[in-house]
Specification:
- The complex is a heterotrimer of chains A (230), B (222) and C (48).
- Chain A is an all-alpha fold and 230 residues long.
- Chain A has a domain of 152 residues.
- In chain A, 78% of the residues lie in helices and 0% in strands.
- In chain A, α2 runs antiparallel to α7.
- The longest helix of chain A has 42 residues.
- Chain A is globular and about 65 Å long.
- Chain B has one domain.
- Chain B contains 10 helices and no strands.
- The longest helix of chain C has 45 residues.
- Chain C has 48 residues and is mostly helical.
- Chain C has 1 helix and no strands.
- Classes of the chains: A mainly alpha (230), B mainly alpha (222), C mainly alpha (48).
- The interface between A and B is medium-sized, with 30 and 32 residues.
Chain lengths: 230, 222, 48
């Protein structure tokens, strides 16, 4: 009921809000946020890197939840949601890895570091890429494959804590170059900009997922119409 | 659901599957040959003359085992699907989880029967004391951990061709924790260092986790 | 490459990525809608 009326606002409210939020975010991140003392201006990458990471986790979480709902209800609209969210999650994971590499080079001196968080993110990318390839390589209305891929998405999501744990043990039991992960408590201004950026990027992610769901639903409808014509 | 009945079904299904595999021969023989050939290729590629065998050996063994496991899993439901056994079981009173468990046990027995001789062969080839009880324990635990997951994933059929391609792509990222834990545990046994305990724990945890979740999920997936 | 270039490269990739994806999504929705409309129109003209 309420959820449906809320969902109907997606064309009228969501686009302008997202547009304003993301523009304001760019201004805040580049101009208003104070320059970090140690790292200098490069630290402003935080305002796109961290929100992208959170958006990817949110998207993959939505994929897992939608997959569970699909397994329970067998309603293909949840399958559509899972696929759309997985694709958005992949985009944001890629953006996280790229911005992270570009941030790591001037600060750590290397683009890539086999750090637990980075490695987990990369494996997460591979898992959901496999999910999406498996799902897309079959017909939209193939219920068996849709169910199977939902199971895979849930297992993949539940595997993440184990992956993170294993990679962390692996890295900490070995000698490794010291990465300054001191993260001193952020000053209030930076914290506010960070929070705003996180909100803005999560809104973008939600909008993308909504558009993706629309595409999946339209494709399902097209398939049905084509079936009727034949 | 009658537990005693399901249990007897589990036993008879497993035995039937193993008998059939034994009689067919081609599936487990190709897996065994694959494992041997891969071991050989790795030892050539990594040039064992360089004298750093011990530090590379756990990685070599486990990559070979993982790929052999995926190789064997990709054939595991093949015959059943062709002969319509899966459809017959679906309308029978046997619970899907029992079907899954019997297949996993059968796969596990096959893989263990292949891997133990490979360990023996590696002992001879690499002049390293690999064939010892600790490593066999690790191998059995690791095999249980990955073959319960690959068996679940192999139940998927994408039609004729892409199934065998999809299986490694889907399974390998999920198996990263298992691979790390197995390699580290094996290395700690070979180096005689005592830091293998957390890895053994992770291995046990992973084996329990994959078996439980696959047994729960199989009825939904198939 | 000085540090500030990395900042600009990162921001450029981020915004370019978002906009490209948005455009791809919109185009896909448009093609699907026109295709559906076309088929429905064809059907209606067949019926009459």
């Amino acid at each position: 009921m309420n959820l449906n009326t809320l969902y109907n606002l997606r064309w009228t409210v969501l686009p302008p809000v997202v547009g304003v939020a993301i523009t304001v975010m760019a201004g805040l991140a580049l101009v208003s946020a104070p320059t970090e003392v140690v790292e200098g201006d490069v630290q402003r990458l935080l305002y796109v890197h961290l929100p992208s990471a959170l958006a990817s986790y949110l998207s993959f979480g939505i994929t897992a939840v939608c997959s569970a709902l699909f397994l329970i209800t067998r309603d293909f609209k949840w399958d559509a949601g899972a696929q759309a969210a997985a694709l958005v999650g992949l985009i944001f994971t890629a953006l996280t890895l790229i911005t992270g590499a570009l941030w790591g080079r001037p600060i750590w001196g290397v683009y890539w570091q086999w750090d637990p968080r980075i490695t987990t993110t990369l494996i997460l990318f591979l898992i959901f890429a496999a999910y999406l390839v498996a799902r897309k390589s079959s017909e939209l209305d193939n219920e068996r494959i849709a169910r199977f891929c939902s199971v895979y998405a849930i297992i993949g999501f539940l595997d993440v804590p184990l992956i993170h744990m294993s990679v962390r043990w692996w890295r900490t039991l070995h000698p490794q170059p010291i990465v300054s992960r001191l993260d001193p408590a952020l000053p209030t201004e930076m914290l506010l900009v960070t929070l705003f950026s996180v909100t803005a990027v999560l809104l973008v992610a939600v909008w993308f997922i909504v558009l993706g769901v629309e595409i999946e639903l339209l494709s399902q409808r097209l398939l049905k119409i084509k079936g009727r014509v034949r | 659901m009658d537990l005693a009945y399901q249990y007897s079904c589990l036993i008879s299904l497993t035995v039937a599957d193993l008998k059939l595999t034994w009689r067919e021969k081609s599936a487990w023989l190709t897996t065994a040959l694959f494992a041997c050939a891969a071991l050989l290729i790795y030892s050539f590629a990594l040039d064992l003359a360089s004298g750093i065998v011990v530090s590379l050996l756990p990685g070599v063994i486990w990559t070979v085992f993982l790929f052999a496991g995926i190789f064997s899993a990709s054939q595991s439901f093949h015959a059943d699907r062709e002969n319509g056994v899966l459809d017959a079981l679906r309308i029978s009173p046997v619970h899907p989880t029992i079907v899954y468990l019997s297949k996993t046990i059968s796969n596990f027995v096959q893989l263990a029967a292949i891997q133990i001789p490979v360990l023996l062969g590696a002992t001879v080839l690499f002049n390293e004391d690999i064939f010892q009880i600790n490593i066999i324990m690790i191998v059995l635990l690791g095999t249980l951990g990955y073959c319960s997951l690959t068996t679940l994933l192999s139940a998927l059929s994408f039609g004729s061709k892409s199934t065998n391609l999809m299986l490694p792509v889907m399974a390998l990222p999920l198996l990263v924790p298992l691979l790390i834990a197995c390699v580290e545990a094996t290395a700690s046994v070979l180096d005689d260092t005592p830091d293998g305990a957390p890895w053994m724990m992770l291995l046990v945890l992973f084996a329990i986790w994959t078996t439980l979740i696959s047994a729960l999920m199989f009825p939904l997936a198939d | 490459m000085s540090a500030i270039n990395f900042l600009f490269a990162g921001f450029a990739v981020f915004w370019a990525g978002l906009f490209t994806y948005l455009i791809v999504l919109q185009l896909r929705i448009r093609t699907l809608r026109t295709e559906i409309e076309q088929i429905e129109n064809d059907q209606e003209s067949d019926d009459t």
